[in-house]
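Form 12-C: Joint structure prediction
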Amino acid sequence: MFNGLLNQRTTVPQTQVDFEYDGPCMKTSVPGPRSQNVGAINFFCNYEESRGNYLVDVDGNRMLDVYTQISSIPIGYNHPALLKLMSNPNNLSTFVNRPALGILPPETFPDTLTDSLLSVAPSGMTRVQTMACGSCSNENAYKAMFIWYKNKERGHNTPSDEDVSTCMVNQAPGCPDLSIMSFMGAFHGRTLGCLATTHSKAIHKLDVPSFDWPIAPFPRLRYPLEQFTRENAQEEARCLEEVEDLIVKWRQKGKPVAGIVIEPIQAEGGDNHASPNFFRSLRNIARKHGCAFHVDEVQTGGGCTGKFWAHEHWGMDDPADIVSFSKKLLTGGYYHKDELQADKAYRIFNTWMGDPSKNLFLSEVLNVIRRESLLEEVARSGRALLNGLYELQVCIRKRATSFTIIYPSILTGRARGQGTFCAIDVCDDATRTSILLKARNKGILLGGCGERSIRFRPALIFKEYHVHLFLNIFNDILAKHK
Amino acid sequence: MFNGLLNQRTTVPQTQVDFEYDGPCMKTSVPGPRSQNVGAINFFCNYEESRGNYLVDVDGNRMLDVYTQISSIPIGYNHPALLKLMSNPNNLSTFVNRPALGILPPETFPDTLTDSLLSVAPSGMTRVQTMACGSCSNENAYKAMFIWYKNKERGHNTPSDEDVSTCMVNQAPGCPDLSIMSFMGAFHGRTLGCLATTHSKAIHKLDVPSFDWPIAPFPRLRYPLEQFTRENAQEEARCLEEVEDLIVKWRQKGKPVAGIVIEPIQAEGGDNHASPNFFRSLRNIARKHGCAFHVDEVQTGGGCTGKFWAHEHWGMDDPADIVSFSKKLLTGGYYHKDELQADKAYRIFNTWMGDPSKNLFLSEVLNVIRRESLLEEVARSGRALLNGLYELQVCIRKRATSFTIIYPSILTGRARGQGTFCAIDVCDDATRTSILLKARNKGILLGGCGERSIRFRPALIFKEYHVHLFLNIFNDILAKHK
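Section 2 - Result
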């Protein structure tokens, strides 16, 4: 039934991941007897035995990992290049002596930054600030935008005595009523500042005090995007209009929008896409109204969309004022334009300010990405994956329409993606849960997002043959689903 | 001139740090020619050559480190036990494969937790949540307190539809108007939630939106504490009264206090101490008013006060509902009582939830602390340090009163400390800056805190002979200060 894909499998050029296993291998259902199931824990892992795209659990089950620790493993488990780095005695000190990077950086740190983060800096940005995780990156990016906005407002003059005294007790004007605009469905982290811009699931936000900040609608597009260009353009225009209205409204409220934060693809919120044109227009609206424009690439960054940054798909020289990252970059942080640099030392600061040992790994990850042309690989695997998902949708639907009604119509025709950053929608949440569990027991690890989406977040070494292996197993699961 | 101390030096039992250098060795002024001086950066370091209590910079200057990366290096640089841990091939995988700890922990993680964090759990606490840094630890601790408070308020019933829908758009009742009480002079981090409870320096807070949360006065005590017990008790009573008034006032305002957060010694805010009795009373007030009690041990924890946790000096079986940590513990996180456990998975969550490689180091640090009885060492070094600081104060004052007026009265008689967590006050900020720079050029690294304090934050392997070495050099600096 999967002829197109099976044919492809023998004709495309294959690149292998030579340090990994040759397929899933299941010994028990998961979680198995040796995994204790507590809270959010899925199961316990044997990271020593995990290789490449395969995660091994404590019961010896070996699963093809299409979720990669919530999209945070760039080049698979136990990559030889990273193990080799660990065996170099010159690197030991970086692991053992974690510095207060903001005041006492290692001699080699500027070079490490040049080799790692700065070598993949987004267009127009030559500055980067490292942080320990994604939330801290966004929190500090927001602070950088607030500081920038207020400095602009006071004409770069010294803050008044009133500013200084009121800020100490959390009051305006020192702690001003500024806001960050975010979008419904967004996820930017869970610390209190970030959480005020996160609107993906109630469980993240319930019971936590927040800020009265504007929330714009994110376009709800129809997929495949190419088939619905006109409807989608209308929907995007509606959202952009609302963005401008909200900026004006919040200015009138006395809570001006200092910055707008957005994901290039809303991930946690359900893999919601928007067109390059939408983002270009939004960037212009931000500029027009004097708001900083912050692109959150914590989940989209690092190559999984087939470009190193998802915003590169927009084709802009000046895509953003701030780009934050974490996950696949192994260290958190944000790039920023010169003018977003805080005017004084210690305004953006904490004890660790990141972790140089993570930059060391990142340098090596970037070497592997370049040496093995992994972005091209991702683009190729991504095409195979998305085509396979399209076929599955049609396949299942065909069955439904040809009255093979013992299989319900499970997939709802919303397959979408960029690179291997793909998703499909399932008819309802219960079916999704059931499919995710069945897939896991067949040796395929997947994750959910949004209300009824399944997200694909493989490592950058997920090749076409992994795609086919996945599609064959997944097809079986769907076919047998009752 | 330092006879008392010099005598001691030859009579006390000496324990050596056998992997370190025998003293400071300065080749240039600091920052030297190879250090670029940008923003907050003090100078660039050669961590490979640093050993024990000695930090070496890129120009080959070797300094006795009494600041230890803002108090975050527990057992000195390049400790052999930590280097050995790195050379164990069984540990490599933990560094190379960072998991999403909340969902896919390594098989060994429960044991690692038992060996590390849980082996030093505060009294009454059997649960710990790891996080990546101090700010994230406090942010999540605050969330845990809000969740606990609201669950209590709604009688542990399911949240209403209105709760669920309003929280998605940052509005009450889903995002309730709850508050965290903090103290003037406090420092709890710089992300937006933490920052609303930080009140140490304007530069941290200026231009960042905040919450209208109550801020109580922290006792301003006179030192040495033993000499001013009556005045200090009065001052503490005044502050405690204000705490209760504020709790009532904020409840009436509709912003009830869900939790009270406090440092056992206000560190960044100027090494402000309070008595065990103050903290015991505060803990009781929190209980009486149904507020959670959160002790922030990010800077005080890990042994530097001569006990593993500073709150142990209060002598309580039930010192807190939450104790947060980071820095010397190498991983962030917080301990909490059972009832502060969030009622559902994913309420307290993020991608990494800490970093198991840091727990691996921590296990070994704790082994070293036990094996070498470092808490007793800290208590002994701390007594020598505080006595030395008392002598210096008197010494300088004597000179001033005996009309040797070419030396001004530099120290203001406020030497204070617990273990090696000590501080002195200098007459003014400019003098402090000058003394810190002079000390650095003589091979002694110190830090400032508050408006005019110098804080001492050596590693736990700072022995009595390091104290004497420091005191001799510091005495010279003060004597020559103009």
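Section 3 - Comments
Chain B touches chain A through 107 residues (CB under 8 Å). Residues 98-369 of chain B form a domain with the Aspartate Aminotransferase; domain 2 fold (CATH 3.40.640.10).
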